Amino acid sequence: MRLILAAMLLLLAPAAAIAQPSPTEQTMMQTVVAEHDRHIALLERLVNQNSGTLNLPGVRIVGDMARAELEPLGFEVRWVDMAETGRAGHLIATRAGRGRNILLIGHLDTVFEADNPFQRFERDGARAVGPGIGDDKGGIVVIIAALRAMQAAGTLDDANVTVVLTGDEERIGSPGSVARRDLVAAGQAAAFALEFENLAVDDGAEFGTIARRSSTNWTLTTSGRTGHSSGVFNDALGYGAIYELARILDGFRRDLPEPNLTYNVGVVAGGTPAAIDAEGFNVTASGKTNIVASTAIARGDLRTLTLEQDERVRARMQAIVETHLPRTDAELVFAGNGYPPMAPSEGNRALLARLNAVNRDLGLPEMAEYDPARRGAADSGFVAQDVDTLGGLGVAGGNAHADGEWVDLDSLVRQAQRAAVLITRLSLGAE
């Protein structure tokens, strides 16, 4: 509440003391403050509707809730069914205007499936907890609050805005080319892209997101000749599958390290036999100490900052895999539905500079660039190769993807005010 009062005082401060927003922008700021309770109520409704990625009906219901907010603002809204990828689908809303097209990106789904015990919105003053409250239902509310403020100020009339709310950001459907086809097309048509995942906050300071690393899963399967353990390492049996797996993983550890690169190993199994399920989450294995293992499996992820780094590291990983121990073989497969990187660029930095101009005019602190190694992957990576992109414009909070996920409700005000002014300036060409 203190921050809301500060926002109101800002509007009344003498012009000589601070930079002043225009009268139109003051209207946007006042509208966001006046509608704060409405936005919190909307957030509560969204959070209380489970929309785990695999809860397809729940994702569609949240899409319907977003539709009910966007259509009265003059958006043409359509649902893109994604049954062929095993997911619910995406909500795409468009509002044509004379300005440059601004793409707003969020997502309807959460990591909390319908059987998770963490299901309800709870509020304690300016703090609220709930599944997906920040990632990304808070981001959806920021988008809606900003657009409503623009409508109240009259700037939405001429603005050219596209909203894409994906239904599978937390667990992309397959094939990825189909799952992200519509988002990629929207990025190619846009002049700027703004992504509304959680705001980056560190020790009270708020940061701008001009880069995110990729996220791609990989599966390593090794094989070897099996037989009595007394023959291990000899010319007939060789080293077995587990030693080959260990050689490769240790090669990754020793040979790959470089800035902005990580390659986690999340699950391992080896024996005679060993197997992994279709989803790649559960492994099974059996064996005896006196039997050389026939099969070993490891699964992990790869995170890189640029496409060049991604291609180079993948090639190096494959080279390590192909140097086999005697009488063994191995195969490394990268999943086809990962997230590409949102690489840092001068265009993205220019967008952050535009946001900082908004911050100065609204009397808010300027934002430095956030370390991309501390951010997860997001849908913005799918458009960043085609359009200047700025991420992390959603609410401030913490404990994402875990029970007790929370947000600072006052940050809804700051973020919606920033977004309304920034979208207006970008679309209509104002500096």
UniProtKB/TrEMBL annotation:
Entry superkingdom: Bacteria
Cofactor(s) of this protein: Zn(2+)
InterPro entries: ArgE/DapE_CS, Bact_exopeptidase_dim_dom, Peptidase_M20, Peptidase_M20_dimer, Peptidase_M20A
Ranges of residues in domain Peptidase M20 dimerisation: 210-328
This protein's UniProt keywords: Hydrolase, Metal-binding, Signal, Zinc
Keyword Transferase: no
PROSITE patterns noted in UniProt: ARGE_DAPE_CPG2_1
Coiled coil start-end: none
Keyword Hydrolase in annotation: yes
Span of the signal peptide: 1-19
Gene3D superfamilies: 3.30.70.360, Zn peptidases
PANTHER family reported for this sequence: ACETYLORNITHINE DEACETYLASE (PTHR43808), ARGE_DAPE-RELATED DEACYLASE (PTHR43808:SF32)
Protein name: Peptidase M20
Species lineage: Bacteria, Pseudomonadati, Pseudomonadota, Alphaproteobacteria, Caulobacterales
